[in-house]
Amino acid sequence: MASVEFQNVSKTFGSFTAVPDISFSIADGEFVCLLGPSGCGKTTSLRMIAGLETPSAGKVLIGGKDVTYLHPKDRQISMVFQDYALYPHMNLADNIAYPLKVRGETENKRHARAREVADVLKIGDLMRRLPSQISGGQQQRTSLARALVYPSQVYLFDEPLSNLDAKLRLEARGFLNHLQRDMGMTAVYVTHDQAEAMALATRIAVMDKGRIVQFAPPIEIYRRPATTFVANFVGNPPMNLVPVAALVDGGQLRLRADGLTLPSLPVSDAIAKAAAKGKMTLGIRPEHLRMAEAGDANTIAGKLFANENMGPESLVTMERADSGRVTARIFTDDEIRTGDQVTLSFDTRHVTLFDETGARIPAIGE
C-alpha cells in the first residue's frame, strides 16, 4: 500500500474551476472518504488520483512518487465505479480476471486468483454466470473482486454502493469496513452519503465548491464541525442551527432568539471577539434535545410541525414563531399533535457556537 498526496492541485474545465488549489495527504493504510454534495469536486479529485483527469496545476503523488502525468495503468491503482462497468459478454470469472489478462498472466494463474478473491467475496459459485444473470449486490461484489484481484498501492471507490437497495448497502458497507481493516488497504472513497462516510472512513474530507472545508476523523467532524455547512451536512437529521443575537454583558454571554431561554454562558476571548459582531449561530444535535420538564433552565419552544415515529424513537420537529425549525430525536410515548405547543430542553455542554461567517468558535479550554 502507499500514501496519496495533493500538492496545490487545481482543475479547470474552460472557464469553470472544479477544484481550486487544494492540498492534502492520505497516509498509508488510511480509508479516506471525500464527502460532499453533487458538484463539490470530489469525483474530479478522485479521477485525478486515478489519472483519468490531468490537473491544471499542482502535483499528485502516490507513495511519494510524482504521478501527475503518469498513465493510469502505470500508477498501480484499482478503481470501483458507480455503475460497476462489467463486460456484459464475459462471465464473472473473466470479468474478475481481466486486469491480470491485460498484464500478461497465464489463464490458469489469473483464473485461480479470480476464484480466490471471489470466494472471499462469497460469489465463487457464480463464476460461470454473465453479469445480467446476477443481482445488483452480486454485481457490486464482482466489481469489487475485479479491483482486488491485482495487488494495488491504492484502491479508489466512486460511489460504489449508490445503485444498491437499503439492505444491500448496509451489508456491503459492513463488508467493505471489514475488508479494509483486514487488508490494511489505502482507500479513497467518494460519496454524498454521510452515513457511509461515518461508517467507513478513518478520516473524512468534507468538500464544498471544490475546497476541503474540514478533514478529520468522523467523530471529530460530528462533534466539532468546523462550519455551519459541515454541521448541516453531516448528521441525520443534521445539527439544528438557530441564529441568535449575541451580547457580552458583565463577562457573560447572553444569546437571544425567538422561543429560546438560555442563562448566560461563560466567555472566552474567541467568544467575546465573535459576540462583538452581534450575531452568532447556536448549534445543537437532535439527540441532545429532550422534552422539557418543570425547572429546566435551557429551553427552546415552538409549535409542533411534525412527529415521525421511527419505532424506538420519534423525530419531533417544531416550528418557532420566526419560521425556524428545530428537530429532536427523543424517546417518548406522549401523544403530541400538529399545532401543539412544544418545549424542548438541552444541556449547554452539548451546544456548539458559530460566528457570523459560519465558522465554529472553539469551546472554552480547547
Automatic annotation (TrEMBL):
Q: Cellular location of this protein?
A: Cell inner membrane
So which residues are the signal peptide here? none
Q: Which GO terms describe its cellular component?
A: ATP-binding cassette (ABC) transporter complex, substrate-binding subunit-containing
Membrane topology summary: Peripheral membrane protein
What GO MF terms are annotated?
ABC-type transporter activity; ATP binding; ATP hydrolysis activity
The record's listing under Gene3D superfamilies reads:
2.40.50.100, Nucleic acid-binding proteins (2.40.50.140), P-loop containing nucleotide triphosphate hydrolases (3.40.50.300)
InterPro entries noted in UniProt: AAA+_ATPase (IPR003593), ABC_transporter-like_ATP-bd (IPR003439), ABC_transpr_MalK-like (IPR015855), ABC_transpr_MalK/UgpC-like (IPR047641), Mo/tungstate-bd_C_term_dom (IPR008995), NA-bd_OB-fold (IPR012340), P-loop_NTPase (IPR027417), Transp-assoc_OB_typ2 (IPR013611)
- The ABC transporter domain extends over 4-234
Q: Does the keyword Repeat apply?
A: no
An example Gene Ontology biological process: carbohydrate transport
State one Pfam family annotation. ABC_tran
The protein's UniProt keywords, in alphabetical order, are: ATP-binding, Cell inner membrane, Cell membrane, Membrane, Nucleotide-binding, Translocase, Transport
- SUPFAM superfamilies, per the entry: MOP-like, P-loop containing nucleoside triphosphate hydrolases
Q: Which family does it belong to?
A: Belongs to the ABC transporter superfamily.
Name by which UniProt lists this protein? ABC transporter
Q: What is the lineage of its organism?
A: Bacteria, Pseudomonadati, Pseudomonadota, Alphaproteobacteria, Hyphomicrobiales
